[in-house]
From TrEMBL:
One MF annotation (Gene Ontology) recorded for this entry: siderophore uptake transmembrane transporter activity
Occurrences of domain TonB-dependent transporter Oar-like beta-barrel (ranges): 235-991
BP terms from Gene Ontology: siderophore transmembrane transport
Chain ranges of the TonB-dependent receptor plug domain: 126-226
Keywords linked to the UniProt accession: Cell outer membrane, Membrane, Receptor, Transmembrane, Transmembrane beta strand, Transport
InterPro entries for this protein: Beta-barrel_TonB_sf, CarboxyPept-like_regulatory, Oar-like_b-barrel, Plug_dom, Plug_dom_sf, TonB-dep_rcpt-like
Pfam families: CarboxypepD_reg, OMP_b-brl_4, Plug
Membrane topology: Multi-pass membrane protein
Protein name: TonB-dependent receptor
SUPFAM superfamilies in the record: Carboxypeptidase regulatory domain-like, Porins
Cellular compartment(s): Cell outer membrane
GO cellular component: cell outer membrane
Native organism: Rubricoccus marinus
Keyword Transport: yes
Length: 1078
């Protein structure tokens, strides 16, 4: 009789946008059958993929549609046909189908067998990967409908917010997002989501348009590149031979969210609900044939309209968070602005942030002939978001600081897949992406104004005028990408020759303080027009608004051999070479070369990145019930181009920079840059400039990543996996300031770069006076490489795919995993600006940063998922998705409020933790209170007598449980109505004290106020009632303000009161929806 073997034969690499099949056809004696025909038919569309076996009996079918079901038939003259049915493929999988045929003696017709292969226990799998199909996407709880909500199903993923994804402890900017093989990153690097449109609150694509979704961490296929974090790879849906579509509505408002306890002015707590808001989605899909079996289309539209109130308000507003300054003070500021400066600052009323966007997508799939298939896809996102208004306990923005962030993204891709006989396959892809972002001021232009108010031991900041960084800010990005992969089959070898080339064009307008910026130390100073600090940037060129316009390219070529060494062992070895190129040069500033020996017109162009990789997959037995897999190799990412753009914008000959403390000028309320320049001309210090430089040998981020895993098939359809990933930095980022000179060393060994001597006991922190190498410049910031830093993750996971065998539990799938992770870095790279990446990198020595715990580390994470679907009654089906995400808190650092190293930068110096009262001069507060707090906090108590290390402290552990439920009701002719409910933070619904998500702003917390170091001139004087002796010289003069309030309403005053609780994530939220599918 005819035989069929479904086993681990050759399973060669698959396309980044498709699936593949391969195998061997033999006769009953095990001899290969050359010339046998294999045809795979994608049943929904009728698309046929065919080929013939080579001399060794092997065949390969590539470029297959993801999904199924497929029917695969093997035939040869004189032998009985064998057909395998019900076959499903997944994105990135190479399915192995082996056939054994017998001679046809007329006893039997064709043989039909149902077969399948596990996505994990597959010969095509080497490194860590999470595979997410259409059904899981539909069943995953999500309200924001973001890619991050799907990517979080990866055990090694984390994220600082619901729309941000970090992978394997790396910066989210180091991820690569691809849709249909087209790069859809925010390659410039300004969006926190890592995708274009993120700054306007939009996603790059509708979840209803996605067919399948992968997160790859260590793919040892050299075609995968552009990341040192993770590759988020999705493909869009395609039409079939049947017309189908859907219309959907999703909505929520303030009545579908829980209440949180809010502290009132009298110290009591009341449960506070969110203010009135709406969040609505309108979604539609339509797909079908244009020509049956030949041409298909798919279209999608999604519109979001959201109106979200700010969480904070003034006293008496009933807001969840109360700004502490009396409303009379705010009224006084508004009156002064109107009467003295003829500026309407706006109101202090509750503010609602409006967000809207529309996403459009169209796709065409065309079977040109039996050997060629063409796919065309275009998508467009138009997004707007109200921005510029932020309010909290200590900070308050008037309403006329509002600006609108506008973002438009057009992404197009054309892909041609060609079967070149039975021994070759080619895939060619051409991509264009255009992004247009701008910040558009909505009210009267006015200089940035910050008013500092100190009363009752608290510091409050009130802001009016236009944000310093939004007065002149827009960005155009254009990307053209061409990729071609030629695959050649020869015996047990599959060789890939490929090239991937990206060409970028950027046009960036960014002039901070274009209208000027002023800081006032009191309301009275604002009334008199007496600022304590003045900012201004003015053009030195003929163009009053010069832009950073430059081109870049990243050229890549690679070769790879996939070798089936034995029936159970597959090896993948390859080499990829990438070459970043910058054809455009910034302006030259001769003064930079004179001062620092570095030219401003030299950028790191032409520095090769070599990425050799070796992967393996070994089946311990022929049944593949136990599998070893892994690999080692280099992965090269892409530097956010804004870090390079900083050099094009800050050469010292394009802008003059003013940043003067205690300027002897009067406030100028004009938003005219020429008028501000006249004000600046009154300053005796004159103008200086900041320059940004890049080491000419600088290379884009690169890590050496090793992956080792074992997978074990268990009873009941379960698969257990233990997986380890280790990444070592080869090229990472580091910043240093060339224009500051060390003048001394503090008592604990901290380098001092200026005046940090005690300046008298004052409630204001010391800013310091930096010792500069060249007075023509403020800062000279150099971007360079470091090879320090590493990450590792160890994961244990148990998972089960749905069996769909008709039993009660046949529709149950899910997983449970625990991941232990460590991540270290020299610089976290969390900002787009060179000054911020240098300034806010908490460290012992700001100019020679040491490796420390990274902001992106997730030390412990338990991830549980459960999906279930049951059909009943002939017309009904119920399904749910449940996600448990339990993880250790985010790391943060203990710092000084003030400037402990004299570099003029405050709130970035790690604090010295006193071992005893004799270590410090305490001007405010009680040492016994300070000592008690230190002892109560392990990250402080364990490091007494030393400077705190970066990120040794943690926010509280967080536990989130999310649920999605769908009820399906069939109507007529296979159509159905679906009622959905997405419930986030179920634990908070059960108990108001559960499900809290805490954070620390900027990932740091002030322990002490810093006022300076005791010097010899202070001996014999009195500081805070203490007579200074010679032995006190060098001690830090500090203040301590203990927290005495129960800020979170848990009935205790403890460490949890230093954290802020997220307004949305910490409360339960419900979204209701209805979808009609036809």
């Amino acid at each position: 009789m005819a035989l069929l073997a479904f086993a681990s034969g050759p399973a060669f690499a698959q396309g980044t946008t498709s699936a593949a099949m391969s195998g061997t056809i033999t006769d009953a004696n095990g001899d290969p059958i050359p010339g046998a025909n294999v045809v795979a038919v994608h049943e929904p569309s009728g698309t046929r993929y065919g080929g013939a076996t080579r001399i060794d009996g092997q065949y390969n079918l590539r470029g297959l549609r993801v999904g199924g079901p497929y029917t695969v038939t093997a035939t040869f003259v004189g032998y009985t046909d064998v057909t395998q049915t019900g076959i499903q493929t997944t994105l990135g999988q190479s399915l192995t189908l082996d056939f054994v045929l017998r001679e046809d003696i007329g006893e039997l017709g064709s043989i039909e067998v149902t077969a399948e292969e596990d996505a994990v226990l597959s010969a095509s799998r080497t490194g860590a990967r999470t595979v997410i199909g259409r059904e899981e996407i539909d069943q995953t709880p999500t309200i924001s409908r973001s890619l991050a909500d799907i990517a979080r199903l990866t055990p090694q993923a984390g994220g600082g917010s619901s729309d941000q994804t970090t992978v394997a402890g790396r910066n989210n900017r180091y991820n690569n997002i691809q849709i249909d093989g087209a790069t859809l990153n925010d390659v410039f690097g300004l969006s926190g989501t890592g995708a274009p449109g993120g700054q306007a609150g939009a996603q790059p694509i509708s979840l209803d348009a996605i067919e399948a979704f992968n997160v790859d961490i260590a793919p040892y296929d050299v075609r995968y590149s552009g990341f040192t974090g993770g590759l988020i790879n999705a493909i869009t849906r395609s039409g079939t031979n049947e017309f189908s579509g859907s219309v959907r509505y999703l909505g929520r408002n303030q009545d579908l969210a829980g209440a949180l306890p809010v502290r009132q002015s009298d110290g009591t707590f009341t449960d506070q609900r969110l203010g009135d808001f709406t969040d609505q989605y309108f979604v539609g899909t339509l797909g079908g044939p244009i020509v049956r079996d030949k041409v298909f289309f798919f279209a999608n539209v999604e519109y979001q309209d959201q109106a979200t109130p700010l969480n904070a308000g003034v006293i008496g507003s009933g807001a969840a968070t109360i700004f502490q300054l009396p409303t009379s003070a705010l009224d006084s500021i508004r009156t002064i602005a109107q009467d003295r400066y003829n500026y309407d600052a706006g109101t202090t009323d509750a503010f609602t942030d409006g967000t809207s966007n529309i996403k459009l997508l169209g796709k065409l799939d065309w079977v040109l002939n039996d050997a060629n298939r063409l796919s065309l896809r275009a998508s467009y996102v138009d997004a707007q978001d109200d921005a510029g208004i932020s309010r909290s306990v200590n900070n308050f923005d008037f309403s006329n600081r509002l600006y609108q962030f506008n973002s438009n993204t057009l992404s197009t891709v054309a892909e041609l897949r060609s079967q070149l006989g039975n021994s070759a396959f080619n895939e060619a892809r051409l991509v264009y992406t255009g992004v247009r972002d701008s910040r558009d001021v909505q009210a009267q232009p006015f200089p940035y104004v910050q008013i500092v108010d100190q009363r009752g031991g608290e510091t409050s900041n009130v802001y009016l005028g236009i944000d310093r960084f939004s007065q002149a800010n827009s960005l155009d990005q254009d990307l053209i990408e061409f990729t071609n992969n030629l695959t050649l089959y020869k015996g047990d070898h599959t060789v890939t020759l490929g090239t991937s080339n990206q060409f970028f064009r950027f046009n960036n307008l960014f002039i901070q303080d274009f209208y000027g910026g002023y800081v006032f130390d009191s309301i009275e100073d604002f009334a008199s027009g007496d600022p304590s600090r003045y900012y201004l940037s003015t053009s030195l060129l003929d163009d009053p608004q010069p832009r950073a316009e430059f081109s870049a390219a990243q050229l890549g070529a690679y070769v790879q051999d996939e070798f089936q060494a034995t029936p159970l062992l597959r090896l993948t070895g390859g080499l990829r070479v990438d070459l970043p190129v910058f054809p455009s040069d910034p302006l030259n500033n001769p003064a930079s070369e004179e001062a620092f020996g570095l030219r401003t017109d030299e950028v790191p162009s032409g520095n090769f990145l070599f990425s050799p990789r070796l992967g393996f997959n070994y089946a311990v037995n022929e049944a593949r019930s136990t599998q070893l897999r892994g690999g080692t190799g280099l992965f090269a990412g892409r530097t956010p181009y804004v870090w390079i753009s900083n050099q094009y914008s800050n050469t010292g000959v394009d802008f003059a920079r003013i940043d003067v403390r205690n300027p002897d000028i009067e406030f100028n309320p004009s938003a005219d840059p020429e008028s501000q320049a006249e004000t600046a001309a009154q300053l005796p210090t004159g103008q200086t400039a900041e320059i940004n430089l890049t080491d000419e040998d600088f290379k884009f981020p690169q890590v050496w990543r090793t992956n080792l895993a074992i997978d074990q098939q268990l009873a009941g359809g379960f698969v257990a996996t233990v997986e380890g990933i280790y990444s070592k930095a080869i090229n990472d980022i580091d910043y240093t300031n060339l224009n500051i000179i060390q003048t001394g060393t503090s008592f604990e060994g901290r380098p001092i770069y200026g005046d940090a001597a005690f300046a008298g006991s004052t409630s204001r922190t010391l800013n310091g006076s930096t010792n500069r190498d060249d007075d023509r410049f403020t800062n000279a910031l150099l971007l360079r490489n470091t090879s320090e830093g590493y990450e590792y993750n160890v994961t244990g996971q148990l998972r089960r795919d749905a069996l769909n065998d008709g039993t009660v539990l046949g529709g149950l799938s899910g997983s449970l995993s625990y991941t232990y992770g460590r991540a270290t870095s020299v610089n976290n790279g969390t900002s787009s600006r060179a000054i911020s990446n240098w300034q806010f990198n908490e460290n012992f020595d700001v100019n020679n940063a040491e490796v420390g715990t990274a902001d992106f580390e997730v030390r412990h994470r338990v991830l549980g998922t459960m999906f279930y679907r049951a059909e009943y009654g002939g017309r009904f089906a119920s399904s749910f998705g449940l996600i448990l995400d339990s993880r250790a808190g985010n790391p943060f650092s203990w710092i000084y409020a003030g400037n402990a190293n004299g570099d003029t930068q405050s709130f970035n110096d790690l604090v010295y933790i006193p071992a005893s009262e004799d270590d410090i001069i305490l001007t405010t507060g009680n040492y016994s209170d300070l000592d008690a707090f230190i002892q109560s906090e392990p990250s402080l108590a364990d490091n007494r007598g030393t400077v705190a290390e970066r990120n040794t402290a943690r926010t509280p552990w967080q536990n989130l449980l999310d649920l999605q439920f769908t009820q399906e009701i069939q109507t007529v002719q296979g159509q159905k109505v679906e009622l959905t409910a997405n419930l986030l933070n179920v634990l908070n619904l059960l108990n108001n004290d559960w499900g809290r998500v805490y954070f620390r702003s900027n990932d740091n917390q002030t322990l002490l106020n810093f006022y300076g170091y005791v010097d010899a001139d202070d001996v014999g004087t009195t500081i805070a009632g203490q007579t200074i002796a010679a032995g006190d010289v060098g001690k830090p003069v500090v203040g301590y303000a203990p927290n005495t309030r129960d800020n979170n309403g848990d009935g205790e005053v403890d460490r949890t009161d230093i954290f802020s609780s997220t307004a949305l994530s910490s409360r339960w939220q419900l979204q209701l929806g209805i979808r009609y599918t036809f």
